[in-house]
Amino acid sequence: MTQAFTHVAVFGKLRAEGIREPLLEIARVVESAGCQVMFDLATAESIGPNERVGHTVHAIGKQADVAIVLGGDGTMLGIARELAPFRVPLIGINHGRLGLRVASRHGLLSTFSPTERRHLAHALAYHNAAQLPPIDDTASLFFLKLLRDADKLDIWRVVIGHYSGRGRTPKAVNEFELSGNGFCSPPVLAALKNGRVVPIDSVRSVCDAKLLYISWVYDLNFPISFRETVRGGYLERLSATIPRLSPDIRSALQCASDHAARSAGGL
Q: Which domain holds residue 34?
């Protein structure tokens, strides 16, 4: 039987903590099937200097039969845009559920009680989901919401540093081929105006990405999370990195800030 693939590209979520081992494990599985692994330059760098050869996106597009993407929706969307001209099919691996499988396989949850394992499993698998899944267990749902809020507060600090030129690459949206012209897409602005989280597939520009991060305020769950948002000035500091604020954008940003203040208890 003819082998379906000979070259398999592997992309990972940029600078995500703990991603090195899952990426290497994917590579070992691919190589055991007789295929050559092609890491992109950024993913190869995140694995470690001189450990794996990195390839340009153009080289991958020309040679790869398929690409495996380890990350969330933002990572998948970014890679899809870069490889679209080459018509390379993509296979997405959600890093949340992969993390749960890795933790279970290595016995990292074995010291916890069955109830604790259930709570941890839900939190690991769905902390990065676009929406909360239907979970009947109220305790599991509580811990999941808690982790999701903490994750947002952490990522806000990272992206503010990035956009201010002081920090690392953002975790949630990889800015592959996003326009830097300051234009904000109408669907993105409409979502923010109407108090909704911006759909990631609407993001077309760096301005859109910033508004996506700001819209996360509508997905926070606890008063203390809103208070930390207000105390840290995260929405205002992100807004300050948008170079040209039209009246429509200012209005949408004010709605987000007002929502945070009200939900924080009037602070």
A: 7-95
